[in-house]
Amino acid sequence: MLEALYGEPAAPSLAKEVPALTPGYRRLIEASPFLILATSGPGGLDASPRGDGPGFVRVADERTLLIPDRRGNNRIDSLRNILADPRVGLLFLVPGMNETLRVNGRATIDADRDLCDSFAVDGKAPRSVLVVAIDSVFFQCARALLRSRLWDPAAQVPRAALPSVGTLLAEASAGREGGEAYERSLAERLPKTLY
Questions:
Q1: What is the reported pLDDT for 141?
Q2: How many domains does the chain fold into?
Q3: What separation in angstroms does the CA of 85 have from each of 7, 72, 88?
Q4: Helices (DSSP H) in the chain: which residue ranges?
Q5: Judgement on whether residues 139 and 172 belong to the same structural domain of the protein
Q6: pLDDT value at position 43?
Q7: Which residues contact 122 (CB under 8 A, 6 or more apart)?
Q8: pLDDT at position 66
Q9: Strand 100-110 relative to strand 87-93: parallel, antiparallel, unpaired?
Q10: What is the pLDDT at residue 144?
Q11: 10 Å Cβ neighbour count for 167?
């Protein structure tokens, strides 16, 4: 039914998918400071942002990626999902580049101290590292980012035009959390707790 609605995929859209990193795909991962990690588990789906300086995802070999699990909010939704279902999807973005890179694979969680220490920043190591065995990798065409004008400075929304995180949290928690006090403490806490 879907094939009748959409038609056949173009040959290049199939040829670009491979089971291991090409030199070009590797360069995109090494240039990326941001990815979205998609997981699935008994509690449902999760899409979680991961980011750090370009190259924060280490290419161990053409079939293996290492992703430090940097400090966050300790919800560990993605990690719980990986324990139940190791399948993951990764979407890498490179600022200014309209194509994205997609990786599908299977992840394990490694808390080996030496491995974690090898990802330390400012003397602070992640608690674990995701080891992703690549099943397939391919680039996604530029249409979505072009349509969204994601990198266009003229399309940027001024932060003050949207609700603050303190307001969002207060609304979501019916006033139990959030507000101005949360805003002040977050502004002080974030720079000190990045790693």
A1: 95
A2: 2
A3: 32, 21, 8
A4: 2-6, 11-15, 23-31, 77-84, 113-117, 143-148, 165-172, 179-192
A5: no
A6: 87
A7: 195
A8: 98
A9: antiparallel
A10: 97
A11: 15
The mean predicted confidence, pLDDT, of the chain is: 96
Model confidence pLDDT, tens digit, residues 1-16: 899 999 999 999 999 9
Q: Are residues 83 and 140 in the same domain?
A: yes
Provide the 3-class DSSP secondary structure of residue 9.
Answer: coil
Distance between first and last Cα of the chain: 48
Give which of 141, 97, 133 is closest to 21, Cα–Cα: 133
As a whole number of angstroms, the distance between CA 46 and CA 22 comes to: 28
**Which strands, in side-by-side order, build the sheet including 129-140?**
44-51, 34-41, 87-93, 100-110, 129-140, 64-68, 58-61
The 8-class DSSP code of residue 10 comes to P
Backbone angles phi, psi at 61, to 5 degrees: -165, -175
- Give the domain CATH number at 32: 2.30.110.10
SS3 assignment, position 186? helix
CA distance linking residue 117 with residue 130, whole number of Å? 14
What is the Cα–Cα distance from 126 to 69, expressed in whole angstroms?
Answer: 6
- What pLDDT does residue 104 have? 98
Residue 36 pLDDT grade (very low, low, confident, very high; cuts 50, 70, 90): very high
Q: What is the pLDDT of residue 55?
A: 95
- Are 54 and 14 found together in one domain? yes
Tokens at residue 20, please? 């291991």
Q: How far apart are CA 148 and CA 155, in angstroms?
A: 8
